[in-house]
Design a protein that fits this description.
Layout (H helix, E strand, L loop, with lengths): L11 H27 L5 H28 L8 H7 L11 H28 L3 H25 L14
Helix pairs in contact: 1-2, 1-3, 1-4, 4-5
């Protein structure tokens, strides 16, 4: 593969990890749609909008991951049956309360972040800087979103850890 300066035979582990991430993102996307449609209660307006924002972002990332696989000259996974078999993210019940939904999303983030680390490791092994750059930005964004959702779950009396100044 001349335009990437990566030997084609070395790409397969990266593509496998990217396709797994693609499957994970599809399952995450559907979970967000499920929660967007089924949220009830006093936090409806806030979470309905947040879930839409998150699935919009996931939709973009799904396309970018698939296009990265195509850039590496492989076919991306594209059937829901494959996503169900491949993804570590499972479907969620539709009728959860707001806190359960946010907790489910944070659980999915943990799985996504773990899979992103696997992609980065595989890509670093073959010096695939394009994949490393793409997924590195996803990690930063997802960690920030996770922090915000985790803060939403906290009580206002909770505190973060502190470091003594001057130590």
């Amino acid at each position: 593969m001349t335009y990437l300066n990566i030997k084609e035979e070395k790409l397969l582990p990266v593509v496998v990890e990217l396709n797994t991430l693609l499957a994970d993102y599809h399952m995450y996307y559907q979970k967000l749609r499920n929660f967007h449609w089924n949220i009830l209660g006093k936090n409806f307006f806030e979470l309905h909008q947040k879930f839409e924002e998150l699935y919009g972002d996931a939709r973009i990332k799904i396309d970018e991951i698939a296009e990265r696989v195509l850039t590496l000259r492989y076919h991306p996974l594209s059937n829901y049956s494959d996503y169900l078999k491949t993804s570590a993210i499972e479907e969620s019940e539709s009728f959860l309360n707001d806190r359960e939904m946010v907790s489910e999303i944070l659980g999915s983030h943990k799985i996504l972040l773990s899979q992103m680390s696997k992609v980065i490791q595989a890509a670093n092994t073959i010096e695939d800087e394009g994949t490393v750059d793409l997924i590195g930005a996803y990690i930063r964004d997802l960690e920030k979103t996770s922090w915000m959702l985790d803060a939403w779950l906290k009580d206002s009396s909770d505190h973060l850890k502190s470091v003594a100044q001057g130590s």
